[in-house]
Write a structure and sequence with these properties.
It contains 13 helices and two strands; from the N terminus they run H-H-H-H-H-H-H-H-E-E-H-H-H-H-H. By secondary structure, it is mostly helical. It has a domain of 176 residues. It is elongated and about 80 Å long. This is DUF4371 domain-containing protein. It comes from Gossypium stocksii.
Amino acid sequence: MRGEFNGLQALILNDCRYAYYVYCFAYRLQLALVVVAREVVEVHQFFKDLSNIVNIASASSKRHDELQKAQATEITRLRGDAHNAYNRLRSFEFIFILHIMKEVLGITDNFCQALQRHSQDILNAMSLVLTTKDLIQKLRDDGWNELLKNVISFCETWELDFLDMNAQYVVGHSHNKKEDVTVEHHYRVDIFFATIDTQLQVLKSRFNENVVELLTLTTALDPKEFFKLLDIDKICILVNKFYPEDFSQQEKEHLPYELKHYELD
């Protein structure tokens, strides 16, 4: 358990000092990544708009019958919904966030798929944890210029308006300008960095160094193929580092000799 609710994690640790939180592989990680990304206001609005667009598009086959039966006011409302969805779909902000999420979900896809496989290869999954974190961090550190270039190129290809990045940023429709904040700063810091930081936070909290090491060491206990991965050194590290109080000193000293019998079995 992550322990967000009423200090649950703390209560468990008080009762069992050497309990460790390990991410539930049955839960789809990409859903969690999308949920935390929505903590960024603009990203939350993006997914609301996306849901609305999908609903309108998927219902298009039914629209004809609805329009046949609908009164004039209902027809106007339906047209208004479609018009608003169309405008949002063509907006720079929507296209910009679409490109961010495409990059983020593309980077995390291999890792998420590895967690979902029935024949889980924990060693491979833990290796993907590290590379996924590195690639997300690299996107944050070095990916801004390339992302912006791709967004502008997309807008040019489809003849969509794109913003002057050097202009002063205006908040919403109030025409209130933020002092010394450019459009480029808003999109880079408030949306691009903020979105990626939520992804890094999830990956680092759910798969921190201790958890990665713990899961890597537990592969030495994998019963597949008659304990083919049995590793005495890893099991001893597991005992001494993660569960030192569950074994007496005598048991720890005797453990390597006992395991050698299983190694030859």
